[in-house]
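hey all, quick one before standup. I had two proteins in the batch that finished overnight and I want to keep them in one place so we stop losing track of which output belongs to which input. First protein below, input sequence then structure tokens straight from the run.
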Amino acid sequence: LRKEIKYEGLSCFDYIKKQDNYYKTSQWWILNKKDAITIIKTVNKYKYLQNIKLAGAIDEFYFLTVLMSGINS
């Protein structure tokens, strides 16, 4: 797995899709540089996600939901 991550440069998430287009990940995930920059640049656009009452820790929902929202929009 380490070799695949190193050479493919992809972010890795173990996730399930929740209702209303929210994605829940485990607490273990890896962001590549491109996705980390996307999160930083869009923090104001997706600020509303920080206030949503979701079961679990917000980091298990926020990052992948933002990234998937960008892909789907």
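OK second protein, same deal, sequence then tokens:
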Amino acid sequence: DAEERLTKLRLAQALNTIITERGLTQTSAGKLLGAGQPKVSALANYRLDGLSVERLLGFLTSLDRGVDIVIRKRSKSAGAGRILVKAA
């Protein structure tokens, strides 16, 4: 599903930015995330097939980030409903 892939990609971008800004190694990031270094390597290289949106959201909270999910009625001009990921 293209929409799910794009959501995962945006979440991964946010995670990789946080990991880089903190100067974490893959091993130290893995300890914080509760994941092994190979999983962090996959994340760093955007190989996201083995990671669910839920797991990526959990990784963000493990890195002291809050995640807000807002459900709202779509505007008539917007077409089909969509998922938007925005890092603040």
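Flagging for whoever picks this up: The two ends are 25 Å apart (CA to CA). The chain has four helices and no strands.
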